[in-house]
Design brief:
Radius of gyration: 37 Å
Order of helices and strands: EEEEEEEHHEEEEEEHEEEH
Helix content: 10-25%
Number of domains: 4
Largest sheet: 3 strands, antiparallel
Distance between the termini: 107 Å
Length: 281
């Protein structure tokens, strides 16, 4: 207790104390507690006054108590980042499933076999690096840098194949990505992705870098900074000087590609109109 004449002060948390000295009443005009304002009580005689402030109800929100976290080495997957999974199939897709050098992979399997339904997995690996390779064109110019989607030697068994079986082979291509595993001494494909009608035109809706990076679970693409195009692409059709335009009929279609964009198709209207237009080009 303070001596007469001293200012009032708050006592313990959750209560307010008012001091009244013998030479007169001195108290706090108002006191604050737990975010609310409380008016002073009427003091009638010297002494110590204690007023309890209601703390209010603090509801405890229930949380799940069955979520388990696993930290350890896995054959593949994102490094040093927690990934939430709900079944062992999720673990296989993100971290490669069971692996002989991964104790945590067996722990995760047993967790779900024994009724577990919610877990976080953090992959850790020392000095791990992603596998990389550079694709080149027929002139040995680097056109695409390919890296594995995650660090580790698992990507050493990933193969990429390119073909031009597209509607516009001059401007687009298909990319097939296959992951192999060695079983009984033989390389067996266990996972395959196919990305079709890819373009190297960064303004195209099927731009290879954007499409593959958004959908692939195995690889990431990057176009080298040194890759530049000094001239616009072009394509020349065959000689049309001997073409018999009289064979054209209304409703016939002509397909083509302009400046590397997606293929277009034209349906011919009146034959005579088309013939005159071609003659005067």
């Amino acid at each position: 207790m303070r001596m007469p004449g001293e200012r009032s002060r708050r006592c313990r948390q959750g209560s307010c104390c008012f001091f009244q000295a013998e030479d007169g009443i001195r108290d706090a005009q108002e006191s604050r507690g737990l975010g609310d304002v409380y008016k002073r009580q009427t003091l009638t005689y010297p002494g110590v006054y204690i007023e309890e402030i209601p703390s209010g109800v603090r509801t405890i929100v229930g949380v799940a108590t069955s979520i388990t976290a696993f930290i350890g080495y896995t054959s593949r997957g994102p490094l040093d980042r927690a990934v939430r999974i709900h079944n062992f199939g999720d673990f296989e897709r993100e971290f490669g499933g069971l692996y002989k050098d991964s104790l945590v992979s067996y722990a995760v399997q047993q967790f779900f076999l024994n009724g577990g339904s919610d877990a976080y997995v953090v992959r850790v690996a020392k000095n791990a690096k992603p596998a990389t390779v550079t694709m080149k064109d027929i002139s040995e110019t680097e056109v695409l840098k390919v890296s594995a989607a995650s660090h580790g030697v698992w990507a050493n068994d990933v193969r990429m194949d390119i073909d031009y079986a597209t509607s516009n082979p001059d401007s687009t291509f298909n990319l097939t990505v296959t992951r192999y595993e060695t079983k009984n001494g033989r390389a067996v494909p266990v996972e395959t992705e196919r990305h079709i009608n890819l373009s190297m035109n960064s303004k195209s809706a099927t731009y290879a870098v954007d499409v593959v990076n958004a959908t692939s679970k195995l690889i990431r693409l990057e176009r080298p900074d040194v890759l530049s195009f000094s001239e616009r692409g072009w394509s020349l059709s065959g000689d049309l000087s001997d073409f018999d335009y009289s064979d054209l009929a209304e409703g016939d279609t002509i397909s083509g590609v302009l400046n590397g964009t997606d293929p277009f198709t034209l349906t011919l209207p009146s034959v005579s109109h088309i013939y005159l237009s071609l003659i005067h080009i």
